[in-house]
From TrEMBL:
Residues 98-208, 217-395, 504-651 form the Plastocyanin-like domain. GO terms for cellular component: plasma membrane. It comes from Mizuhopecten yessoensis (Japanese scallop). Belongs to the multicopper oxidase family. This is Laccase-6. SUPFAM superfamilies: Cupredoxins.
Length: 706
């Protein structure tokens, strides 16, 4: 055997060269072996290799028996079972997808699971993730939310920004370093597919030994779940309104509001789910007894909960029933100085780690994520907006799989409940008080806020819905994002939708909005939510970077805590239509990073931040990661409506894309009519001319020889 072959076999046996076979795909898809190969991903190893198969599946279906299932008392039963025997086969249960237990409907599953399998790696490991798309009708990509992708921008997974989408039956291998450590997740980055289940947790442990803070940890991925709409229907309803069709006379749903008057949802809320399970509240007090996710704990221990919001639309306030406090210790993978609060707000795209001390009397409690709208408004609609999971103390027997509606922790004027990460300020008369991200401080050994103490360049980006009646799309600085016809990173020369003179202070334009930044410079971005298109708060996510949160500014409130005016710190004086497409500081002495009351010491880092309506957030980061980075609102509906842009970072220093990186595009340039053989008439004419020349040459040569 040749030495090279021996070496290859040796590397194969050592697991250095990944092996892919059809068996492998099926074994990971059906759960016979874990999604991530058991011989990889361990501490001290260099590689973590995983296989993800994406396909459509039905909820409330016991596939092995081809039987519909129904829920009762927090358990699942065969639909036609007359006996009182719940389905309890532990091997099959994880593959019976329940969601909110309402009806059997199609969702997107990964390796037959909803949400997809958790990927757990160690910092600096090379993640090699093979993705296969078996959805019959949809193309897809997968984004690794929170991963910096240093040197691998082509693995960021944003359709038409970093790569071509995968069609039916196609595979793609993502390869990147697991960095930074902390709580992250993966999700689809095309259309609204995250809404339908294409997501899963991605947990990266630090390479260094850290003293274990808690006894055990749990991951809770939260999502709002509408059991009628799919991703495309949601989008259409956003454009044209949502109507209550079951009522006579039919009515239009009105927008719900938070306590400050901020707008939240025009949709009917059906259910909230945690790790793919939730209950449908038919009335504010009666639910359908669908099973919930259960976390088992022992009394008087500390547990870490890693909470991830894969939500489509709603922010959630997270608390633990019967436990007056919890301690927030990290966000978006970055450690925070511990903040002990009653609850915290998590927005779509954000992650929070908290520690819970199980110091209450042994019982079944609920982990509750409640949306932020005014409770009485929700009740008036006949709805109850929560996602729930059971925290079961093992000492309590028997366990109750069907606990009743959660009881809120008691908040009074003298014993206020403190909420962290509020997107608003509350009046002092309220029974709750707010901490905002201004109050967070880093506790992360990787944070170095002194790196961004001096600003080289600043930009303003207004995330809003400005425009005239009938055309108020999601936009950034009045630019409604149009995805390019080919990936901006790998095929920049194919960009046909450049922003031009149709964009201006008093115009709303549709194009591929980009901002180029230069390597090595420190950038200050002021993200605003002001002007005519304000009203909704936006969780804005930057790919390829985390950023320091320097300051959060809020609007102006009356004595009841209702928003009356936007922040006086931002001026919308450019343009006459109040679109605020070019916001600036109201006080020009604030230019160049000279903003008062910045958090300059122990500044907290994250990658997704809420930009409060009427307000702003100042963030800073250093341009040290060449690539094309999507920068967008993480509310899927706002994003797909155009509230996004691409930060083109140091294009001359782009890392080379891998050999044979897929290319794609549209057919606009191919205006020649096709002939039956698939070649164009132009090609045929060329071929004809070549043949004639060949014939002449043949005759000439023959004549010479004669
Ligand atoms: Cu938004």
């Amino acid at each position: 055997m040749a030495p090279t072959s021996t070496m290859f076999l040796l590397l194969l046996v050592m697991g250095v060269i990944p092996v892919k076979s059809q068996d492998h795909w099926e074994d990971t898809r059906t759960g016979k072996i874990p999604a991530c190969l058991p011989e990889t991903c361990r501490k001290g190893q260099d590689i973590c290799e995983c296989f993800l198969t994406i396909e459509h599946r039905l909820t409330m279906m016991y596939e092995k028996e081809k039987s519909l299932v129904v829920s009762k008392g927090g358990r699942l039963y065969r639909f036609n079972s007359t006996e009182n025997n719940p389905i309890a086969n532990s091997d099959d249960l994880p593959f019976i997808l329940t969601l909110d237990g309402n009806t059997s409907r199609v969702v997107i599953a990964i390796n037959r699971l909803f949400p997809g399998p958790q990927i757990t790696a160690y910092e600096d490991q090379t993640l090699i993730i093979h993705v296969r798309n078996l959805m019959h009708t949809d193309s897809t990509t997968v984004h690794w939310h929170g991963m910096q992708q240093l040197g691998t921008p082509y693995s960021d997974g944003v359709a038409m920004v970093s790569q071509c989408p995968l069609g039916h039956g196609q595979e793609f291998t993502y390869k990147f370093k697991a960095k930074p450590h902390g709580t992250s997740f993966y999700h689809a980055h095309i259309g609204d597919q995250r809404t339908m289940g294409l997501y899963g947790a991605l947990i990266v442990y630090p390479k260094q030994e850290l003293p274990s803070a808690t006894d055990e940890e749990f991951v809770a991925v939260i999502q709002d779940w509408n059991h009628d709409d799919d991703a495309s229907t949601l989008y259409q309803r956003m454009l044209f309104g949502v109507f209550n069709q079951n009522q006579n006379p039919k009515t239009r749903y009105v927008t719900t509001n938070s306590v400050d008057g901020g707008m939240y949802s025009r949709y009917k809320f059906h259910s909230g789910i945690v790790n793919g399970k939730g209950r449908y509240y038919l009335t504010p007090s009666m639910h359908n007894q669908a099973p919930l996710t259960e976390f088992e704990v022992d009394a008087n221990k500390n547990y870490t909960f890693r909470v991830i919001s894969a939500a489509t639309l709603y922010p959630f306030r997270v608390y633990v029933e019967g436990h007056p406090t919890l301690t927030v210790v990290a966000s978006d993978g970055f450690a925070l100085k511990p903040i002990t609060v009653e609850s915290f707000v998590i927005n779509p795209g954000e992650r929070y780690d908290f520690i819970l001390l199980t110091n209450q009397s042994p019982d079944d409690y609920l982990l509750v994520a409640e949306t932020l709208e005014v409770e009485s408004e929700i009740a008036r609609r006949g709805e109850y907006h929560v996602a729930e999971a059971i925290i079961h103390y093992r000492e309590k027997k028997p366990r109750n799989p069907n606990p009743s509606k959660p009881v809120r922790n008691r908040c009074t004027a003298t014993n206020k409940c403190v909420i962290f990460n509020c997107p608003y300020l509350l009046p002092t008369s309220a029974n709750e008080s707010c901490l905002t991200y201004n109050d967070a401080r880093t506790n992360d050994f990787n944070s170095a806020p002194e790196d961004v103490s001096k600003v080289d360049q600043e930009y303003f980006f207004n995330f809003a819905f400005p425009g005239e009646h009938g055309f108020t799309p999601g936009s950034v600085n009045g630019h409604q994002f149009v995805p390019p016809i080919a990936p901006l990173y790998s095929q920049p020369e194919d960009l046909t939708t450049v922003c031009d003179s149709n964009c201006a202070d008093d115009k709303i334009c549709s194009c591929t909005y980009t901002q180029t930044i230069e390597n090595g410079k420190v950038y200050q971005f002021t993200l605003t939510n002001v002007g005519r298109g304000k009203g909704w708060s936006h969780p804005v996510h930057l790919h390829g970077h985390s950023f320091y949160v320097m300051k959060m500014g809020f609007g102006q409130y009356d004595s009841h805590g209702i928003l009356t005016n936007s922040t006086p710190d931002i001026s919308c004086s450019r343009g006459s239509k109040e679109y605020c497409n070019s916001p600036i500081w109201a006080n020009e002495t604030w230019n160049g990073g000279n903003v008062p009351n910045l958090v300059l010491n122990d500044t907290a880092q994250k990658d997704t931040i809420i930009v409060p309506t009427h307000g702003y957030v100042v963030i800073r980061f250093k341009a040290d990661n060449p690539g094309a980075w999507f920068f967008h609102c993480h509310i899927d509906l706002h994003n797909t409506n155009g509230m996004g842009m691409v930060i083109v970072e140091s294009p001359k220093l782009y890392p080379a894309k891998p050999k044979n990186f897929p290319i794609c595009g549209d057919f606009r340039s191919n205006s020649q009519p096709l002939t039956s053989s698939g070649s164009t008439l132009k090609d045929d004419w060329k071929a004809f001319v070549s043949t004639v020349w060949a014939a002449i040459a043949f005759l000439v040569i023959r004549n010479i020889h004669v």
